[in-house]
């Protein structure tokens, strides 16, 4: 076995990754694709990198262009200025990092495995050094994939929180070991938020529906108003919600009735018995045609041009007091029981601060198109390797006045759970 493997003192050089150029080539070929695995930044795009840590943008308010002036061939119209109402929004941009440290204990474990790889390679008639390198490549990949995976999850969380929770709040629970008690706002006006009870959810997850509410009618009227308001509205409308919200909405009695009545000439809308029958027919249509059938029906019925249902899940580290370690638990970055009505297309930017790169003698690589970096550092005195990443960015809606919210579910209290009315589902 080659003596230079005995200490693993410079893994990057051992694998031929001894410069920015070679490490960047490795990252682009082996890890770059992981930046988009599970990434959900629907409706957002990257802003140009900036130097400072504060963002700002302007949102126009109700601009309607007037007509041009008709004149004779040799005359110009009188110049007239116009006023456009603009509102300025500002905020700070947080930095996210991840670090992987490897010390003597890790080295010894890897030496044992590397020797096993060499022995197995020899038994297969392979050159031992090749088997060792293959093992080291695999270990490097296992380490390095943490960086794009974690930053991708953070980006998905940012966008999901900003759209559905209208803010990103960092606490000791959701950001262990980092900054806490900090909230980044999305600037959504309070007047854009409508709170209605379309159903209640008890502590077991059972849903009790409010049968006097017609979700299809409510959403259709709002979208109609937006499409006919030539001054502050918009014509291309997107309806957006979490998968849990969609499934609860899909099983609402009024939604099932609408689906059931569609194309059924024998059923009369005003007849209570026919309403009950239509609800059953609606559910049978979904069972027969699939969940996407209901999704398309809702989209068409309310007049939305696009309907997006989010299913992504991210991992969050939670302290396990028993095991004295962090467990990774699946978490939805989207708030449930919230429906977002917004313009289709891009509604926000991911503001990012350009990283300060080390000199070219350092081993580092650009991530997310140069918006962040990973750097390799070796501490010779303590024989410790460190891989460190940083990405400074924040997803911010840039047309907050055009984003309309319906908060539609209430958490049932214990008293409510003891005395329920209406239809149940889930």
Strand arrangement across the biggest beta sheet: 10-9-13-18-7-8-19
Averaged pLDDT: 85
The helix fraction, in percent, is: 25-40%
Taken as a percent bin, the fraction of beta residues is 25-35%
Put simply, the count of helices is 11
Low-confidence segments, ≥5 residues, pLDDT <50? 1-9, 418-422
What's the Cα radius of gyration?
28 Å
Q: Give the end-to-end Cα distance, rounded to a whole number of Å.
A: 61 Å
Q: How many distinct beta strands?
A: 19
Largest sheet: 7 strands, mixed
Description:
The protein contains eleven helices and 19 strands. 30% of the residues are buried.
Question: What key phrases describe this protein's structure?
Answer:
426 residues; alpha+beta; seven-stranded mixed β-sheet; six-stranded mixed β-sheet; 11 helices; 19 strands; 32% helix; disordered N terminus
Give a topology summary.
Layout: H1 11-14, H2 20-30, E1 44-46, E2 54-61, E3 85-92, E4 95-102, H3 104-123, H4 128-144, H5 146-165, E5 167-170, E6 182-185, E7 193-201, E8 207-209, H6 215-228, E9 237-242, H7 243-250, H8 253-261, H9 272-289, H10 291-302, E10 306-310, E11 314-320, E12 325-331, E13 338-343, E14 348-352, E15 363-367, E16 372-379, E17 384-397, E18 404-411, H11 414-418, E19 423-425
Parallel strand pairs: 1-14, 7-18, 9-10
Antiparallel strand pairs: 2-3, 4-17, 5-6, 7-8, 8-19, 9-13, 11-12, 13-18, 14-17, 15-16, 16-17
Helix pairs in contact: 3-4, 8-9, 9-10
């Amino acid at each position: 076995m080659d003596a230079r493997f005995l200490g693993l003192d410079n893994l990057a050089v051992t694998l031929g990754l001894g410069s920015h150029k070679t490490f960047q080539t490795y990252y682009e070929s082996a890890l770059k694709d992981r930046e988009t695995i599970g990434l959900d930044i629907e409706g957002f795009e990257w802003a140009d990198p900036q130097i400072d840590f504060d963002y700002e943008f302007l949102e126009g308010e109700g601009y309607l262009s007037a007509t041009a002036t008709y004149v004779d061939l040799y005359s110009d119209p009188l110049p007239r200025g116009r006023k456009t109402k603009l509102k300025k929004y500002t905020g700070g941009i947080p930095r996210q990092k991840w670090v992987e440290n490897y010390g003597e204990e890790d080295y010894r474990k890897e030496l044992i495995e590397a020797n096993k790889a060499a022995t197995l390679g020899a038994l297969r008639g392979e050159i031992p050094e090749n088997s060792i390198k293959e093992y080291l490549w695999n270990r490097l990949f296992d380490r390095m994939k943490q960086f794009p995976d974690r930053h991708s999850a953070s980006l998905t969380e940012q966008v999901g929180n900003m759209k559905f929770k209208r803010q990103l709040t960092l606490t000791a629970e959701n950001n262990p070991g980092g900054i806490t008690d900090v909230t980044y706002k999305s600037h959504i006006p309070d007047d854009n938020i409508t709170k209605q009870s379309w159903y209640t959810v008890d502590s077991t997850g059972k849903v009790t529906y409010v049968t006097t509410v017609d979700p299809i009618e409510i959403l259709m009227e709002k979208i109609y108003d937006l499409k006919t308001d030539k001054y502050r509205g918009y014509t291309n409308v997107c309806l957006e919600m979490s998968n849990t919200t969609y499934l609860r909405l899909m099983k609402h009695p009024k939604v099932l009735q609408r689906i059931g009545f569609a194309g059924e000439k024998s059923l009369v809308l005003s007849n209570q018995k026919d309403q009950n029958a239509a609800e059953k027919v609606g559910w049978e249509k979904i069972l027969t045609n699939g969940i996407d059938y209901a999704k398309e029906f809702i989209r068409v019925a309310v007049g939305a041009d696009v309907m997006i249902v989010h299913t992504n899940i991210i991992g969050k580290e939670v302290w396990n007091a028993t095991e004295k370690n962090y467990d990774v638990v699946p978490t939805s970055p989207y708030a449930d029981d919230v429906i977002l009505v917004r313009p289709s297309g891009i509604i926000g930017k991911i503001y990012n601060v350009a990283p300060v790169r080390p000199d070219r003698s350092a081993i580092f690589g650009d991530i997310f198109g140069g918006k962040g970096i990973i750097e390799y550092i070796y501490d010779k005195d303590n024989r410790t390797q460190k891989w460190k990443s940083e990405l400074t960015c924040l997803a911010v809606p840039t047309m907050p006045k055009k984003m309309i919210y319906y908060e539609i579910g209430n958490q049932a209290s214990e008293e409510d759970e003891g005395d329920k009315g209406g239809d149940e589902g889930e």
